[in-house]
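Internal ticket #5521
Category: modeling
Description: The requester needs a full-assembly model to guide mutagenesis choices. All entity lines are attached below as received. Residue total reported by intake: 577.
Assigned to: D.W.
Attached entities:
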Amino acid sequence: MRVHPSPPEADVVTLHESVPPDAFDVERVRRDFPILARPVRGKKLVYLDSAATTQKPRQVVEAMARYFDQENANVHRGVHFLSERATEAYEGARERVRKFLNARHASEIVFVRGTTEALNLVAFTFGRLRVGVGDEVLLTAMEHHSNIVPWQMLCADRGAKLVVAPIDDRGVLLLDELEKRIGPRTKLLGVTHVSNALGTVNPLKQIVALAHARGVPVVVDGAQGAPHVPADVRDLDCDFYAFSGHKIYGPTGIGVLYGKAEHLEAMPPWQGGGDMILSVSFEKTTYNRVPYKFEAGTPNMAGAIGLGAALDWLEALPREAAWAHEDELLAYGTEALSRIRGLRLVGTAPGKAAVLSFVFEDIHPHDIGTVLDREGVAIRTGHHCAQPLMQRLGIAATARASLGIYNTRGEIDALVAGLEKVRRMFA
Amino acid sequence: MSSELDDLYQEVILEHGRRPRNYRKLEDANRHAEGMNPLCGDHFNLYMKLDGDRIEDIAFEGSGCAISKASASLMTSAVKGKTVAEAEELFGRFHTLVTEGPEKVRLSELGKLAALSGVCEFPTRVKCASLVWHTMKNALEHQREVVTTE
């Protein structure tokens, strides 16, 4: 059993309580994922790339198939039976997401394509409202490109400046440095909940309190947060929270932007088209209410329903035990990899989640990935869409094994065995 | 270990990856180009000294995987002393080798470059093997933009 050490700067990272691991049956979970039973390259598949995308349980696939087979029609407009059913299912998924995030109102849930689109939406509506010439947007050094580039585009457009809060060598955000960078020109703070490249869990509640004390709203990239740590937006009190369906056992092409009602109401629409309007004439258009104001065009109904099914599936598991399983596996993997001579873990923040990033001797991660692949072990190699972070850490790339709820100790052992083959080949 | 893997990481490749030839900055270069694969973090500088249309000297520096480094090492060894036209012709053959396979080329015309024949079985690695060749092409054509084979 792994007990989370408290991060040095904070005691507010929501930690999972200790639960006996036998309350969680990983083999039973695995049976919901047919893909995990397939061989690859003549070997047993060992899927350690869930931070890139998770596999999908059959319940998600079945819910989407059922929707297409039984309920498919366009939403929000038809008077006919199927349109009503489709609308109910789509809005039901919105309510499901509201519950998952513990948002106050379903109207605070905007369906988008994914985290990237959600962050772009905030940058180009909320950001444009708030950020002007000489203003500053504050980010952290561990952000994914999708929480950098939209802000960079906004700053270029507005004549504003990006300011970056540093991290230490373990990948821990330096809160005092962050605080120092919040000034009178700071209009917005963008921060990731969990780092995709390092696994660092940021003490979000504390960060939000810090920013709010200076009147700065906080936009959270929750792509890795929502799947691995509690994401209670009312508890965190963040202004926006974005996540992707496909990283939380749901389908691709659907994601969520949570925004506080007062912000969403004040924001201009982003894209124009059908569904986001109440009435249109060539002289004037009256926009629909939130969240529809931000959902121009026919939405991804099947995707939303699939995401709803994924959250149903996930939350039907004993959550605390499931989290404890992931933590225990991460601890096991951390120890196993630490024992490998010449291997260095990248990202060693206390209380981190689900990610084992590493460099191994001077073997290029790409070569590591290719050799492991022939052993059936799927990992990600490269800069993980976090080039500024790699630069900060002084490396070009890492190999990254990332965990999902279905992974096992045996799979970590397979990774370790694969790495020994890598050593024999290159060392 | 799968035999495809052994074909990819032949001893020649591993050896050139570990101890690349022509690995230095060429101080009297009159052509230079930069090649980069942002997704894997490979980054090379290629230097050439052209005398008329003959490649009098060629060298490279940078970092990358075993495949890209070995390919750079083998390429610089292969084209040194050749004319520009010969180097470009060799690039054509090499490209066919890594994208279509060894049966589509006369291996005897490729010399040591034949060691990269296993690459065609690894589509994701073709870009590693070809990065430095594209970089050379840019250097020859005086292209200033950074080459990428992503």
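Resolution: model delivered.
Comment from assignee: The first helix of chain B runs from residue 3 to 8.
Ticket closed.
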